[in-house]
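Hi, can you check this record?
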Amino acid sequence: MNSSTARIVREVVFQVLLIIIVFIAVGYEKHAPEISGAKLAFFSSYTLAALLIGYILLPRYFYTKRYLAFIAGLVLLLGVVILVEELFLEKIFFPASRGTSFPGVIHTLLEVLPIILILVGFKFAWDAQYKQTQLEQLNTIVAESRLQFLKSQINPHFLFNNLNNLYSYALENSAKTPTIILELSSLLRYMLYDCKTHVVPLEKELKYLQDFIRLQELQLEGRGSIQFKVEGNTKGAYIAPLILVVFIENSFKHSTASQVKNIEIEVNLEVSNGLLCMHCSNTFSQESNTEELARGIGLENVQARLRLLYPDAHRLHISQKNNKYLVDLEIKLEAVQFRPD
């Protein structure tokens, strides 16, 4: 049984139970608690009207915003219910009393409308809840699709940056070329295979960062110093993959693009009570033009991913001071929005 059929079955069962409950409640009178043929006939008329409103008028006219057609159909249907009750049912079941006179449309409507509204109201609420569920599922699908698109941009972005460097070393016949290829292969293996899930163990992500920094350090050739420090308990913690590396990559790009020597890059991470704090700083030269680097695809990508993955659960502050770019990031690790099934 598929989800659509299961939903219909649940709705039919619910409607039947609701009709029975309302029938018993309405049919219970102080001096006549028994279920009579008259009560069954009158209530069947109201139930049929409620079903027609709930399953025909609401979906065809009200939900499609054809309000005039809905009102016209509602008035026509209520008129038919009143006519059936006054011209047939009352004359059949109460020929000597209620069947001899017509108390008026308003009086009859006040008796008929509350029961119909109760039955239709539950159908309307059911439809609203179902629509809300569909909307939430659609929003989740859209968000996950966008997230996968953003994630798919990371590999080409990473490859372009490192293949350009590798090309330069290959042209120079550098002895570092095989080591760089080996380190790059290890990083790509993690990106392609270990990062398929929405979250990864934080310890694995930190190992990836260490390997990434080691690869970049090979290309600095002694032009500066790199510091990478992790504090706190990282065991059992999880994080969305490839979030932190973008800021570290930008640090290397800012520094190497603007300085020939005296490069200083510092990355400090601390994990405490489910909160990850990262401070990343790098030197740069004021005379160089690194504004385009600060607005690159990598930074825009990671900011979009943070908004999707950690809404209202992260804080990012980027600034520059005394020839240094500074990044301060806080993430509540347990607040990630998307997890593997």
